[in-house]
Amino acid sequence: MSAGAAPRRRVVPGGVVELRVHGVSSAGAAQVLDRPLVRQVAGDRSAGFYRPRPGHADEHGADGVTLEAYQWNDLPSGTVTRTLSLLFLLPFMLLNVAVWMRPGDRSAAALVRPLCRVLGLSLTALYVLAVVGVALDLVAWQCMSAPACTSDRDWLSWLGGRPVEVRLVVLALAPVAAICLIWWGATRPGRSFAAFRAPERAASRHPLSTVGQWDAEPLMGRLRSIHVATAFATLDVSLLAARAAQGAPAMTVALLAAAGTVLTACVVLVCAPALIDRAPTDPRRDTVARAVRTVAIGLTVVVGSHLLLAPARWRPDGGLPGYGSTLTWLFVGHAALLAALAAVLLWHRFRRPGHRPPAGLGVLAVAAAAAGLAVAYSAELAHRAADVLDRDATTGGAVIAGPARAYTWAIYGFFRALLLTLVVAVLVALLSRPGRRRAAAAIAARDFPAPPAEAGPRLRQVRTAIVRARFTDLLVPLTVLFAVLAGIGAATTAMALLRPAPGEVLERHTHVPAGLVAFGIGAGGYAVSAAVLGLVVAGVFAYRSAGFRHHVGVLWDLATFWPRAAHPFAPPCYAERAVPELARRVTFLVESGNGVLLAGYSHGSVLAAATLLQLPPEVGGRVALLTYSSPLRRLYARLFPAYVDEAVLREIGDRVGWRWRNLWRDTDPVGGWVFSAHRPDEPAAVAGPPAGVDRRLRDPDGLLAPPGDSVPPPIKGHWPCESDRAYAAAVRDLAGLLRAVPGPPSRP
């Protein structure tokens, strides 16, 4: 506990503690406990356990249970930092999530993981090439070769008259600084999670139990070294390609071969589990990765010296030589990697035809989204920098040639994929709406039979909420469609090698005016820029709005739940602390003679599930589980089939002796049932103990305003339900089951 916190009061044995775990971006422990004044009883400022303050609020909940809340939403970064990091690190974060969305069998995992890691290397190379495109191509090569571009710009004119090699070497410091910045951000320790490691003995063999137990730092250290080496080697290739275009002496060829060898070594290392994943305490693995990094950094120094000491007759015409083709082949590589991922997943589908088609395909969709966003960011950076430098472009007198043609094709591919996906999404929404309306009407008719005439408008709102909530089930196929279109868009960048513009190609083959295509590409580019700028501005002012802070935090908290496994420059995983800390607290409470009712709301139910898998049997026998608005089955079982499946859900039920209740609503677009979608008056779709888990809640409680009120009960959807009568009834039910279990002797 942090300094100045209230003294820890001893837990009274023999009772039941209701330990609530909130979802993403909770407002605080007071809201979770529904008590105005709380005190911290364990943890620190980043995450901790809170109880109502004695003497100022009721310390007990339904059936006399002791209330306690685990607040973990401060483990991720602060609001402004969170939003800005979410913006710039989102491609890296998404790629890390994609690794965990793999299919469940080991053969697929053995192929998906290296493919995602190689794609991660390409994202690092693209990050460097984006800075190279601005600093070396647009500024050093194009702008400084045009007096009209450097005039009245003191920050450029001082270097404008220098030799080309001097300009290139000096402005190469910009990508070097960018590499060092992201390297520093990846190694900077935000919080030490070393004190929160889970016991080495895992209570479960299921993969979900490894969340929070995996010491990712050795792996991240090796991946950081490899990605830094890739970044410096990419810069070397850019400089040497420009030099080779002016004549390739033996030294230039040798240095190009050395840079290619470093890049090849990086690809081999990330594809070799024996060198990266295994033997985390073996220093030889770390030595190999650091040696490659050291060679790459030293090679960059040699390349810069070579350019200065071996001047050439530069012909500054058009873009930086070799840069456009390097960029184009990188985009083609993205398409090839996505195609390889698709082939692996389709092969897995044919091998295991009993699985639902979308299961396991999330890795393709999220990896494509990561690559597409990275390409869009890079292309927009280059185009906006060109707009700033080419100040006379609006009058028709272009000062510089502009960014590489591959960026235009990239924006065209990304915008086309996004536009087609949106069109298909609208069509799917319209075509599926009658079916969703019929289902909603049937649900509302059963929940509210014979409604009064004045309840008609409210009944329509309830039906609309159910219709919208059911659209969530259609999102996974739409994301797969976007992945396919994004991969095709990346492949079309190969057209940049033939030097046509997208408008020229479409006009020649489809008779669509080239001007219209150019307008669409420009509009798409400005839309991406507006979205980026909007997120930046929103990040600065996010602390003023709790509602916006909630929406920003959702994506961040979901993405950083999973440990880093593909890209080391993403933010760290908070589950490395949250899950072991929860397991230790539950163990302490049980050993103190208490039963523990672990209540997880929304994403908190996933934390609770991972925690239960780490509890030893003697502790799990004194634990009950209450989940509400839980996405375990509806989202996680579809998106993370290797970690959430029928087997792990049944294992969780067995571990708590099937003292498990799950509360769900038809109006909830995120949460849902776990084992059976039956209503209270219907038989369950499963037999045995799982049939008693799910409890459907009618939403809203009524259609008309109750006596003494002027508005009808709210439609809660995905909102928490701690104040509902059904929640209190579930707590009383589970607390009674816990009290019937003989407890272990209290800890002295």
Describe the structure.
By secondary structure, the protein is mainly alpha-helical. Helices cover about 55% and strands about 5% of the residues. The protein is built from 25 helices and eight strands. It has helices spanning about 30-35, 80-100, 105-140, 145-150, 155-160, 165-170, 175-185, 215-245, 250-270, 275, 285-310, 325-350, 360-390, 405-445, 455-470, 475-490, 500-510, 515-540, 545-560, 575-590, 605-610, 615-620, 630-640, 645-655, 725-740, and strands spanning about 15-20, 40-45, 50, 65-70, 595-600, 625-630, 660-665, 695. It has an eight-stranded mixed β-sheet, with helices on both faces. Strand 2 and strand 3 form a beta hairpin. Helix 20 packs across helix 21 (about 605-610). The longest helix is centred in the middle third of the chain and has 43 residues, at about 405-445. The radius of gyration is 29 Å and the shape is globular. The two termini are about 20 Å apart.
